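Aim 2 progress update. The chain analyzed this quarter is reproduced below.
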Amino acid sequence: MVALTQEELLAEFESMTLIQLSEFVKAFEEKFDVTAAAAAPVVVAGAAAGGAAAEAEPEKDEFDVVLTGAGDKKIQVIKVVRELTSLGLKEAKDLVDGAPKPVLEKVAKDAADKAKEALEGAGASVEVK
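Predicted structure tokens:
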């Protein structure tokens, strides 16, 4: 297998549509068990190169669940946050105390809806973006 240089890889990414680039990022995340937070500049560069027509094509398939308020039952909300994430007690408490903060990022629509329902059931105010 021939190794591609960084310039060759960037040229390949420039030629991809946003949908193709998004699918690549998802496959990369799954293959190497990482998140694409560091790859976000590549997506932005691809969007700039893709033009306005390519920007209108993609349909949003990743959502963020943002805790906007803990409500009266803060302990219940902390418990739900811990169930939804891998956070410890202190981290979950800090997240709830620091609202508005994202609880889950870049999750599927159904997972976002379930998380919102669970958090609202515990008395929290939640927003899905």
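The CA atoms of residues 6 and 15 lie 14 Å apart. Residues 18-32 form the longest helix (15 residues). These observations will guide the mutagenesis experiments scheduled for the next reporting period.
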